[in-house]
Amino acid sequence: MKQYIWFHPLYISGTAKATVEGQMRNAEKHGYIVLKEKELNKVSARDHLSIVGHSFPPKSEVEADIDATLLQVRPPEEMEAELAEDIGQREDTGFYIQGETAEQCIKRLQKAGLKKGPQILSLECCIAAAANGIAEQLSSHRFFINTIIEANTSGIGRNPGNLSWSMAEDCFGRVVLQDSKNPWIFLLGGTQVAKRSHGTYQISEVIKTILQQDFHSRFFSYYRPGLRGGRVGRYCENTGQRITREKAVALAVEQPGSATDIALQEMDKEEGNKVLYR
Q1: Long-range own/partner contacts, residues 137-142 (CB < 8 A, 24 or more apart)
Q2: pTM score, two decimals?
Q3: For the chain, counts of helices (H) and of strands (E)
Q4: What are residue 149's DSSP bridge partners?
């Protein structure tokens, strides 16, 4: 899995050059590959993509950018107070990315080269994990049907290089205002599937946990049985249990070329996983 980060063009144009360049250096320091506007074609379904941008609504897009420089240089207590006031004044609801709706954002990403959703999409946007917010909207869209989306309900920041920086960074270089009260939320198919406290987890662990938990629903999105519902369908109906990868693999091995076998192969091809039973 490669780790990419993409700064929204409107974020770049509305933020001090020194701040953006400093944040890009911070991202590179933490293992990210910084992408230019039209380089999203490099991102595959196996990768981790982060998007940086404000979440102000359209009417506030130009005049209501958070002053990123102020955010970075204040002590934590002052930063939190100023950011909370700033958000209130500028109507940051978490429903947009740089004034764009989920549909508009996806069109921009596709125009910039993104062919399909990555394995995980992290939104470095304030309040993006709000109820019915931009994270949930993107997660509910078919383009991101197999993508785990990570977002937070609080203010998000990335140090542009100020020596006075004192807030706790996670392994990705991100900070969260009042991080003890605001965990990172993970969504799949528009539904919250996990949450983790800031700075306490590795993405690989979260992905593994989520994909194991959600195997049943993902499998049935690929499963095309005959009129009788197929062996997996009958198994779930008769036992009242959800299908696991281990059980599906066992059934596929027993009947090569079956609907179960084909579904597993299509899942692994789409999601970039190695077929475990070959």
Answers
A1: 137/95, 137/101, 137/102, 138/102, 138/105, 138/106, 139/187, 139/188, 139/189, 139/190, 139/191, 140/102, 140/189, 140/190, 141/102, 141/103, 141/106
A2: 0.72
A3: 11, 9
A4: 121, 187
Q: How far apart are the C-alpha atoms of 126 and 184, rounded to whole Å?
A: 12
End-to-end CA distance of the chain: 22
Domain 3-213 has CATH 3.40.50: yes
Which residues in the chain show pLDDT less than 50? 60-89, 274-278
Spatial separation of the C-alpha atoms in residues 267 and 222, rounded to whole Å: 7
Tokens linked to 270: 């789409």
Strand order in the sheet with 191-196: 33-35, 3-7, 48-52, 120-124, 148-152, 184-188, 191-196
Give per-residue burial for 173-204: e unless 16+ CB within 10 Å, then b: bbbbbebeebbbbbbbbbeebbbbebeebebe
> Where in the chain are all domains bearing CATH 3.40.50?
3-213
Q: Across-strand partners of 157?
A: 175
Q: Supply angle C-alpha 38, 40, 44, rounded to 5.
A: 160
Q: What are the tens digits of pLDDT across the range 78-107?
A: 444 444 444 444 566 799 999 999 999 999
Coil/strand/helix, residue 270: helix
Q: Which amino acid is at 218?
A: R
Question: Are 264 and 252 contacting, i.e. CB atoms less than 8 angstroms apart?
Answer: yes
Per residue in 174-223, pLDDT (tens digit) is 999 999 999 999 998 888 889 999 999 999 989 888 877 778 877 888 88
DSSP, res 141 = S
Amino acid at 8: H
Q: SS3 for 192?
A: strand
H or E element, residue 193:
strand 191-196
